[in-house]
Design a protein that fits this description.
Elements (H helix, E strand, L loop, with lengths): L3 H22 L1 H9 L3 H5 L1 H30 L6 H24 L6 H37 L1
Helix pairs in contact: 1-4, 2-4, 4-5, 5-6
């Protein structure tokens, strides 16, 4: 049996992926509903819909890449070129989310928006660096496999 932490994490990623799809699909209704209580959301319906939709799709793509990487962890074969590509993509998606979220600053500024930008910049940079580490590990693994 696989490690419990691995299985719990896989369940969480799968849940996040499918609930994220649901959130994105219901976004137009959610923003309209919240617009009843916040004039800011009502007044900026289209820009918020575009910003949140595009950020949501990119977040789903990050989770999709994480799920692909996690399958390799479960199969005990992590150091493969596909994971390097996934990490690079995750870094790019994170940095784009940070840029999109920065666009929200023109609509409204809150401490949470600034924190989200910082978190995604750090996640993007971390993913890019980690992809380089994985790339070296894949190279060493392949060289070692050829030696045997």
């Amino acid at each position: 049996m696989k490690d419990k932490l691995t299985l719990i994490t896989k369940f969480i990623l799968d849940s996040m992926f499918y609930s994220g799809i649901l959130v994105i699909l219901t976004l137009p209704l959610s923003i309209k509903f919240y617009g009843r209580y916040s004039s800011h959301f009502a007044d900026n319906y289209i820009p918020l819909l575009l910003l949140l939709f595009s950020s949501g799709v990119l977040a789903l793509l990050i989770i999709y890449e994480l799920r692909k990487i996690f399958r390799t962890v479960i199969n005990d074969d992590c150091f493969i070129p596909e994971n390097v590509i996934s990490l690079r993509r995750m870094g790019t998606y994170s940095l784009i989310i940070a840029l999109i979220t920065a666009g929200r600053l023109f609509l409204y500024i809150t401490p949470s928006v600034l924190i989200v930008i910082l978190v995604f910049v750090i996640a993007g940079l971390f993913s890019k660096v980690l992809s380089q580490v994985f790339d070296k590990a894949v190279t060493y693994k392949l060289e070692n496999d050829y030696t045997i």
